[in-house]
Amino acid sequence: MSLFNIFNNEIAIDLGTANTLVYVKHKGIVINEPSIVAINRRTNKMMAIGREAKEMMGRTHDEILTVRPLKDGVIADFEMTELMLQEFIRKVSPARFMGKRVVVGVPSGITMVEQRAVRDSAEHAGAKEVYLVPEPMAAAIGVGIEVDQSIGNMIMDIGGGTSEIAVIALNGIVCDTSLRIAGDELTRSIIQYFRIQHNLLLGEKTAEEIKCTIGSAVPLPQEITMEIKGRDIVSGIPRTLTTDSTEVRSILLNPIAKIIEGTKATLEHTPPELASDILDRGIILSGGGALIKGLDEKIKKETGLPVIVAEDPLTAVVRGVGKVLENLAKYQEVILKAKKY
Ligand code: ADP
Ligand code: MG
Question: What residues line ligand 1, using a CB cutoff of 6 Å?
Fold first, then answer.
């Protein structure tokens, strides 16, 4: 018998480009796994999902394909997104999702077609009522902001595929910028740099590990060195190389500057009254990208505003959609209105 079958009919989901988190009503977060699906190319059958599929990434033979269905921004692969969503829902409710309610966090820049796709896939998985909440709004609720007040708050959610920067007041998003430059782009720039500068080919997982372990936005009190492994492009043979946080910071400089540009652009579009609130209250950072060492300090330096990293930034959105689920009446106004066709 499933652990979750008592409360399995109301869930909230953070469908992220890098990680999917599922919250079960009255229980809390029960799933926190990479948004990755592994399928068999020949039979088209799903072989693994989440963490298990991530383990296979870069290690597959011809028959297995690992897919990140939301990789490049919003939804890159509708079919795979649906498959993944259904599988995660099945995980919390193995018998059958005798679904009632699902609250899903979606990127604020999501198109109507994409909204429809998310609704449809949740419905195919058995949901009767589907509620969509923009991610920056969910993140704000997750970190405990009273979003119904007239006070302006700025949230910067840096995920895998997108960075979403939004000013929130009176239950709505006043202005926002959605950039396709976020954690994945930082990882890609590491891969590209080592290929060009050191003739060393790194796997995506290795590059991500370098970013998380020694990546930084400002000089560190104690710079860190790291030994990395890859394949030499010229000889084709594996080799190791020692790098350090100074070198990696120089790689990340450019993509980080672009993210900060997005913040400045959003600030320029912010009505003056709200801008003055943000000057007092600062920018709140959420998403995995908030964990880059010294990013808060860098943004503070560039914008002159206070910057606060959310507590447990990777779970801010799911905690937010969880709160919406627990208190739908209170959060009516933050839910995206469905368009009737
Ligand atoms: P999404 O909402 O798009 O699924 P997340 O908020 O889960 O994204 O963040 C995932 C991104 O955060 C990935 O690019 C990952 O590499 C990055 N990340 C996770 N932990 C860290 C860390 N400690 N330092 C830097 N980046 C991190
Ligand atoms: Mg996210």
Answer: 16-19, 159-161, 183-184, 208, 211-212, 215, 287-289, 291-292, 314
